[in-house]
Amino acid sequence: MSTTKAIQTKQARKRKIKNALSAYAFLSPWIIGFLLFSAYPIVYVFTMSFTNATMMNSGEFVQFDNYIKMFNDSGFWKSLWVTLVFSIFSVIITIIWAFCLAMLLNAQKRFNGFFQFVYFLPAVVPSVALAFSFQMIFAKDTGIFNYMIGSVTGSNFSPNWLYDETLVYPTVFFIMLFTYSTGQMMLIFRSGLKEVPRELYEAASLDGASAFQKFRNVTFPSISPILLFNTVMASIGALNGAFAILFPLTEGGPNGATNVLSLSLYREVFLNNRIGYGCCLAVILFLLAVVFASVQFAMSKKWVYYEN
Amino acid sequence: MKIKKWAALLLACFMTIGTFSACNNQGSQSGGESGGGTGEEIKLTLTQWSPPSEDDELNLYKQFEKANPGYKIEVMVIAEDQYSSTLNRMISTNTAPDIITAWECDIGSFVSNKKVICLDDYLAKSEEIDPEEFIPAVKELSSSFGGNYCLPWGYASEILFYNKDLFDAAEVEYPTNDWTMDDFVAAAEKLTIIENGKVKQYGCDTLSFVGGYWSGIGAAGDPVYQDGKLTIGEGAKKFLTTQKYLVDNQFSPAPSTDGGDLFASGMAAMTRTGSWFIGSYKELEFNWDIAPQPKDVRFYNSLHTGLWCIPETTKNKDAAWTALEWFMSEEGQKINSKGTSNPSVIQSIADQGDWKVQGTNGPSNWDAFDVISESGSFGYVCAPAGLTGEAVKEFEAAILGQKSIDDAIATVQAKAEDFE
Amino acid sequence: MRTRHAIHASSVVRVIVMLFIAMITIFPFLWIFSSSLKTNLEISQFPPTLLPKDPQWEAFGKLLTGDLFWQFLRNTLLLIIGNTVGTLISSSFVAYPLARLNFPGKNLVFSIIVATMMVPGITLITPQYMMFNNFGWLDTLLPMIVPAFFAYPYNVFLFRQFFRSVPKDLDEAAYIDGCGRVGMLFRILLPLSRPVFITIGILSAVFWWNELTQPLIYVNSDTWKPLTVALMTRFKFFDEGPNTVTWNYLMAVSALMILPPIALYLSASRYLVEGIKTSGMKG
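Above: the input entities. Below: the structure tokens describing the complete assembly.
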């Protein structure tokens, strides 16, 4: 009896080891990739942030000089602030926009395919092309937007949209509505809304629920996992995707109003060749991502482990 | 079945990778040091910020290939706003091509870090090039390095362009070769047309080319570049105050993302920009002409050039020299002058005037260039491009009233210290 | 009667709102096409014209008959193919044990993968640049293609979510039939996972069609530039000297760059949505 049991446990252990070995064999590409393209670079960034390395020479250890310099630089604080404002607002605004479009599409029965196509259309424009076309549209003197304002209202109101420290924010957020991630979020919301069971709405109607009550009690709970998913994806995108749209659009201007950390970092490393200081900014951006991620993690338990 | 499919896919990827590495090797090995008449084509890669002329007759590289069978030149065009940084990156990572057209701000570090080769041995043997014939500013540069490390491709400066038709309509006298800043501002005011509070015509265009700021600051009395450092102060304050005055009164548009060129479209009566625009403007439909940029306390012009050098890492040094020697020959320089509207740095060739690209409706005042060559010096171009670029952003912020002029200048001064 | 009337009125308002939004979303798109048919001079004129006065097809002609556009397109396609193939193979392999096998350290590995998903790529680009320089890969497409063969965390995550939704009983049955781990992956999981493969393939294609940052940093020469970078660096100052932005070429290239994604949307929007939703949300 005990021998069979022993054989069984032995077999089970053997199977377990085999399991683990084959699992790690499958994982091996990721392990290599992680060590080479994530772990090593993270260590490198932290190490180099304590040196004065440039592209030309590898520099020497300068302790906290870079950090001291950075914390004493008002430009850095502004850049950090701009990054926070830009990330948070662009996530909120694009999600609300995508959700509203999805709601409208959901309510509209006729020409639904046409509307969905047209609403998704801006998302297929590459962000560089988007940036250039909006530079033309929002130009102060020759831009069509100011011309239209002038023709409709008859006033001489012609703001310098992308060169005004305050107006540049609404302008950039407006342009963010046209990015790919917004279009994709709209599609995801749309398919989520489609799956909300009809009966729930009908039951709510019988109870005499108003449109708002239906939204609060039926729509919102049904799509909340999707909302969470979109929020997480959008926040990951905000730190990363800001560069692709802001670099061609404003280059961080005017007067540093849209100078997010990723732009500062690019400028320091690849324009001014200061690797040490650039890595210092990378560390801050990395820590910012950690903070963002922790918040997301707390929120995201719901969708990652949805099944359990 | 499925496994076969996957195997095929895997194979396909390895083949893709294979093709890439193959292409890569081809790129770096082509030509080799040989060049010894085996009929093999020698491919040279060269960097430039300005795309080669569309007209083959004016395309320096095409003409070189024609005159030197067996050579092929591939031009690597890098946009101007990324030019200096990209070149620096290529040089420091030892990936620079066979010939680079370096900027004044970078050549010093390339030479001191021994990243480009000294051309003195080649020059000693050459019958085509005599560095003694170069204009003084270039000779000075070379002597500061203690040898010839680079050959200048021509020179350019900023210049004032004006629309004669609009001057006539507003009954304003044309700019003269000794126009002052006050004359310029007064003319800009008269040339501005505002109807119902909306600007129909600007007196002058905004400074779309960064060099304009530095020439203006220099003319207002600042040294701009001194003792190896960007040096500005009172002159910058004076110049920026004037610029802000022009913008605040709508005599000049504010810095913006405006699509095209307001001067070319006839919406601005004057513009201060690079002399190479003479070529771009040759088909303008209105009558136009050029004048030196207005002087303030002095005439000052930023001189620009590009410096051909051969990176240490290239395998085709001899072939690269063959190309450079031809570029600097009378034939090459003449083609380059015509193609770029930039005078040659070899005085005797420049005197022949091939760079005077005559357009349909202008210009005629070629004497303006005499003022430029007398008052021109390498100024801001010697400071790091990253610094001057950031400085211009500060100036724009000051002109737009986003920060005070004093603040902007102080920030630039601090940055200049930081860049050493 | 009254309620019907009210419904009618509200739907009219809705349609008006929707048409208004449609005008906004379609505008940049029309603007790009219209500007691409203008001369550079017309673009800088005031008042701006909505439609070109005299449509110029010259920019398109020059682009499509020249070599440059096709060369940049080839590079973009190489990036797309290399990345899509690479990430599909490697990410599905890596996701398999995370979804189907029990082994020590599984949770740790999965947490690391989710964590790396959140790291903005630009923070690590400096060391990667230095590393690829040591490999001699700068100014080629390799820095952007080879990493795809080592699994991208986000795609691993999507694959893992999808694989988990395939019933586990199938594994047991296959195991009893004498299938090994590899056999199970190939015979059971992969055939059932077609949709997620297509979804991730499309996402990767769209991403690399749009990607600007990495090629901007890794590639200098025209030989290996993809379209996005070429738009910013080569077509921005196409044929009128270094300081004249050639807006007409910018817009013509942009217009050409819009067409393939439209085709993709029309043919595959189903996968775009369903794929992410099912794999992202369900466990």
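Note for the figure: Residues 304-308 of chain A have pLDDT under 50 and may be disordered.
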